[in-house]
Design a protein that fits this description.
Elements lengths: L2 H43 L2 H15 L9 E2 L2 E5 L5 E5 L2 E2 L2 E2 L14 E5 L6 E10 L6 E9 L1 H36 L1 H14 L15 H56 L7 H32 L6 E4 H15 L5 E4 L5 E4 L1 H17 L7 E8 L2 E8 L33 H11 L3 E7 L3 E9 L5
Parallel strand pairs: 10-12
Antiparallel strand pairs: 1-4, 2-3, 2-8, 4-5, 6-7, 7-8, 9-11, 12-13, 13-15, 14-15
């Protein structure tokens, strides 16, 4: 059932119940009021003077006076003797068309009001009685006055019909008003449902129609739009991750194929007997060892990247960056004396990091600078603290990186110069590992390069706050 139908049905029930209660109270109040007025009139009529006038009229009739007028009385009157027997009675109405007498066999209770039916059951009387003593004879009589409730019942019946008709009209108008109001009020919900179905159909760029932000529907539409935007971003990010994963797997397979093919070729050469003992066999074994080393290095790099994707920096401790830089510079000079490496670290700079991973950052940066620059090219390393950041710069004075490659050098398996990709043993993962480690430590990495003027890679890590 639609919400507007539920609201209209609830409104109908409430209005009907309210009208029924109000109608019942109104009818009951009017009935009590009219009955009280009749009771007041009966008390005024049931007095000694009216009884005297009434009995005298009967006495004249009993003495043979045939000129008795056509009586017209709004009340029926009955006179009971001390034994409760009716001795005189007068019908209400006119003599030519009197109302039936009230069905009273014995004297009613004195001073009390009661309702009795007529003898033929066609109407109801309101009865009140008083005792009177005949001063001449000393006898006690009960004088009962009964007023027909025809007009009272007719008024109540008319009022009841009016209340019922009015109640149905009010209920119908209320239901109609509730339907119209809810339909207009929920019109924005219909738009939101249509917009949501459009988004669900795959149109992720579509948004919920904005409503008045001061209303509940407005706040709901804004919240839904934010939710859809985040879901769209999440889906786009997932697609990008899947794309990168597919590219990563393809690149990894391509990189692994080369050393495996070389190793398999030399094994087949040996198995076929083409590589006899001697210099040729030694050369084949050297190549197998070299390709195996490259393969092991590539697998190690892939495992490092895998761990970095799953963990956030590993175990952390206080690390003095300047000391790590000195160690990395010493190792680089021993590994390759064709590239002079200078170090500038005037003060100690401490960060919270994984020492092994941070050491690998420095090693990879220096290795990248040596591999991608000609022999004799100088490399400068500096460590400094700048506005709460530990800044490590590795600058070379080589040929620089072409502009079209600068935004991609940190991508996995990316090489700016394919011609030296495998000849130099590079896998395209060194800077990707650096980028992942720096990001895992909450740092930043920047690259500046100009053609013919060298390349500078800057790593920024948050400085540890020591107390």
């Amino acid at each position: 059932m639609a919400i507007r139908t539920k609201i209209a049905a609830a409104m109908a029930v409430l209005l009907i119940v309210a009208v029924a209660i109000i109608g019942f109270v109104t009818v009951r109040a009017v009935s009590d009021k009219l009955t009280a007025q009749v009771d007041e009139q009966l008390q005024k009529v049931a007095n000694k003077d009216n009884l005297t006038i009434w009995t005298q009229s009967f006495q004249r009739s009993d003495s043979g006076d045939t000129g008795r007028p056509e009586l017209a009385s709004p009340y029926a009157m009955l006179l009971f003797d001390s034994e409760g027997t009716v001795v005189e009675k007068l019908q209400a109405g006119i003599a030519s068309s009197p109302y039936p007498l009230p069905d009273i066999d014995t004297a009613p209770a004195v001073g009390e009001f009661s309702n009795v039916e007529s003898v033929d059951g066609s109407m109801t009387y309101r009865v009140y009685a008083q005792d009177f003593v005949n001063t001449n004879t000393g006898e006690t009589y009960t004088f009962a006055v009964a007023a027909p409730l025809v007009e009272v019942r007719a008024s109540i019946s008319t009022l009841t019909r009016t209340v019922v008709i009015t109640g149905f009209v009010v209920a119908a108008l209320g239901i109609l008003a509730a339907w119209v109001i809810t339909r207009r009020g929920l019109h924005v919900v219909d738009h939101m449902v249509a917009d949501a179905e459009t988004v669900a159909a795959g149109h992720l760029g579509h948004r919920i129609t904005a409503a008045d932000p001061r209303t509940e529907m407005g706040r709901l539409s804004s919240a839904l739009n934010r939710m859809v935007s985040r879901l769209t971003d999440a889906i786009a990010q997932r697609d990008r991750q899947h794309g990168r994963l597919r590219q990563f797997v393809a690149d990894a397979g391509h990189e692994l194929r080369t050393p495996l093919t070389a190793i398999g070729g030399y094994v087949q050469l040996y198995q076929s007997g083409a590589a006899a003992e001697g210099e040729k066999l030694d050369r084949a074994m050297d190549r197998i060892g070299s390709e195996n080393a490259r393969l092991a290095k590539l697998v190690d790099d892939l495992m490092v990247l895998s761990r970095l994707d799953e963990e956030v920096g590993g175990d952390r401790e206080l690390v003095e960056v300047a000391q790590l830089a000195r160690d990395a510079v010493d190792d680089a000079e021993v590994a390759d004396d064709t590239h002079p490496v200078g170090l500038e670290a005037a003060q100690a700079v401490t960060v919270v990091a994984n020492e092994g991973q941070l050491r690998q950052v420095l090693v990879n940066l220096l290795t990248n600078a040596r591999v991608h620059t000609p022999a004799g090219t100088a490399i400068d390393v500096s460590v400094a603290e700048e506005r709460g950041w530990a800044v490590v710069r590795v600058a070379d004075h080589g040929p620089g990186i072409p502009e079209e490659h600068r935004q991609k050098v940190f991508d996995r398996f990316y090489r700016a110069d394919p011609s030296r990709s495998r000849a130099t043993g590079g896998s395209g993962l060194g800077l990707a590992i650096v980028s992942s480690i720096v990001a895992a430590h909450g740092g930043e990495i920047r690259l500046e390069s100009e053609a013919g003027q060298g390349t500078t890679i800057e790593v920024r890590l948050p400085v540890a706050h020591l107390e």
